[in-house]
Sequence to fold (446 residues):
Amino acid sequence: MSDPAAGVGRYLIQTWGCQMNSHDSEKLAGLLEERGYLPADSPAEADIILLNTCSIREKAAEKVFSHLGTLRPLKEARPSLVIGVCGCVAQQEGESIFRRAGLVDIVLGPRAIESLPAMLEQVLRERARALDLARREDSIAFEGRRVRRAPGPRAYLTVMEGCNKTCTYCIVPTTRGRETSKRAEAVLQETRDLAEAGYREVELLGQNVNAYRDGRTHLGDLLCMLQEVPDIRRLRFTTSHPAHLSLEIIHAIRECPTVCEHLHLPVQSGSDSVLERMRRGYNSSRYLDRVDKLRTHVPDIALSTDIIVGYPGETRAEFQETLDFLQKVKFDQVYSFIYSPRPGTTALDEQDGVPAAEKQARLAQIQSVQQEIQLGRNRSLLGSRLEVLVDGAARRGRGQLKGRSRSNRVVNFPGDFHRVGEFVQVFIESAGANSLEGRIAPAPGA
Ligand code: SAM
Ligand code: SF4
Fold:
């Protein structure tokens, strides 16, 4: 530990939630490192602890408050410790966080990240609490700032922020504000910088990424523009909204060699009546039409999705439509959630009527049906070779590496750690529902 007022302390950022939040934590870390702070390995070692939070589901928000409770002994023993709550819980709960958790010094919304240094200054010099919940339109720029990215060959890059949709269950438009896109030129420059820094895969991020627009440049154009950075050998983008999945974007996936054959396209439900109540702006046949177009243009595309079960009033028959939908599409991966009522959302006014135990049972059913589908999809890859970008050691022990295929599948295989960051060809020998295993094969033509 050290004197934080001198700008030479240690920081720890704990992150909940999606890729956007992980990347926001990288920006917060960059701002702290610009001021001379260094990363800490544990809360006990830190002078500043930031909790970068998610409020998409109730449990995630509750976890933050119970986690703050575990920090209390540290703060009592060391009152100079600065504790901040950032992200969507900060935006949603605002000033009330100070009342509910008296140990908090900073409350910082996700569109006000650049205020962190000034707020820290205020806390350290005046021993005063600081709050900033402004939803700055220019928060997207972050140009010329240092971002402290996680180690590895893959980097996140925010291209748009916010969401203009009105899905009835979702808190994101409240916490993240209106859509704003980054200038295409700035995205290109950042991508060049990432290539120069040694990254090989870039994932473009936005709550509603395919609504990206800079003047006349849409997401398809942006993906094509980024082809001029050859050292970035893989591009991904997430999260896409089915209503904005234009043919231009599908063509860009087909035509641009570095754009990976994987798309996360959350459907939420396979029932038209539920989709309408959710105000998603499409129905199941429109979604299926997009899937057909994708598979016609990019036959080996992998598709993943999100499903919400137990939306207010979801009947058994509506739920069955979602199960049938999974069988129709045969997604490569599904993230499924029980509907969680969020403050200020319009779904709160709807009659729930689905008992909690029934919601749990539906979730389990979705997961078991999908496990079988995934196993089948993964087994169809047995005996094939996949290009894998090695991103680290596998959890299963020494001498085992892991990486991702272009279709975003996790692949484990034996190999030396020095291969992290390389592209290797892996011959697939076994397949589970959630990952593949194999061994490194000679590169084609070798
Ligand atoms: N913009 C993306 C879209 O429209 O599909 C989704 C982004 S949202 C941050 C990620 C996922 O969280 C959603 O796809 C949805 O499945 C889930 N989610 C959002 N609100 C939820 C709620 N109130 N309860 C349960 N799951 C929720
Ligand atoms: Fe939430 Fe996505 Fe709907 Fe926006 S489009 S309100 S982020 S679910």
